[in-house]
Design brief:
about 50% helix, 5 helices, about 120 residues, 3-stranded antiparallel beta sheet, alpha+beta
Length: about 120
């Protein structure tokens, strides 16, 4: 999965993860590249500020409306019912039955997570 799960409200995201777990073969691996907010609020706010700053590129391209659209999307992802906090997401996956959960790579808010059924 790539940049999908973070868009859903937590409750629905949990249902999707249950279905992913259900359909995986025994010992199957699920890999998700997505936006996982750091649990440390200060670090997360720094990551978010950095990301919003990157969208200024659209101004240089003559597309300020894209900068605004991406900014709005990222701020929508911060809503309490939507934000995908790393430790909370891992705890939910463990509760569902995933194991060997590991963050393989992280750059700011973007992370690649893998786990096994």
């Amino acid at each position: 999965s790539v940049f999908t799960l973070h868009n859903f409200q937590r409750e629905y995201r949990g249902e999707i993860l249950k279905e992913i777990h259900r359909v995986l073969n025994e010992s199957g691996i699920f890999v998700n590249g997505d936006k996982y907010a750091r649990d440390n609020r200060k670090e997360h706010q720094q990551d978010l500020a950095w990301q919003l700053e990157q969208f200024k590129l659209y101004d240089k391209m003559g597309r300020p409306e894209l900068r605004q659209q991406w900014r709005e999307h990222y701020l929508e992802d911060e809503a309490p019912k939507v934000i995908m906090l790393e430790e909370e997401a891992i705890a939910e996956m463990k509760k569902i039955g995933f194991s060997s959960i590991d963050i393989l790579l992280r750059k700011k808010m973007e992370a690649i997570l893998s786990c096994q059924k």
